Amino acid sequence: MAVGKNKRLTKGGKKGAKKKIVDPFSKKDWYDVKAPSMFAVRQIGKTLVTRTQGTKIASDGLKGRVFECALADLQNDEISFRKFKLMAEDVQGRNVLTNFHGMNLTTDKLRSMVKKWQTLIEANVDVKTTDGYLLRVFCIGFTKKRQNQIKKTCYAQSTQVRAIRKKMVEIMMREVSSNDLKDVVTKLIPDSIGKDIEKACQGIFPLHDVLIRKVKVLKKPKFDVGRLMEMHGEGSGTKTVVTETGEKVERPEGYEPPVMETV
Fold it and tell me: What is the pTM of this model?
């Protein structure tokens, strides 16, 4: 061994040998994740974040986290193939308030619907809600046999497929563009849009398994705490004003008292 090459031995002991091992979980806190008021179960679960230290704030580490939940967990029902994505937008105390971020179906449900001897019809559309959210909505449907049909296949002609797709886009546009995000999510929970499409297309070709298979949030309006609180059912559109005698009067937000002619 060449002299002067092994510098470690000359400096007296190993460098950093006595570094204390600290459990990283001792520096973390648990927060409750809350779903918006459209869902029956408001408590989704808990999430972990490192405590505020210096310039690194805990709430900044939580904002933007996406939680994926099965609809069965959010609604206490049997429909387990629909999944909702909820994004953390605000932190209040130990509660993380989430907002709708997307919806899709489980892979096994989609795969189980695709079969031979039928036509698969898909459509998608970009549409804006009344409160400024730009959503991309995807729809899927399948042709089905008529009653007492002997023929094995039930293929639709390309003109019928185009007509059905046009109807799908039309209904999705109508249902989303005339409502705000809260109403759209309320419609997605039982998938009433899919049922409307199925009913509307019966005249063109009988369909089954018509579902909104995915919803993506492409653009969001500027973050508004008031709107998020409304989503969580804590802030309401009306203000409660207490009069001099003490009775409560419901007033709409932004209420202006009428101008008096004489004082």
Answer: 0.77
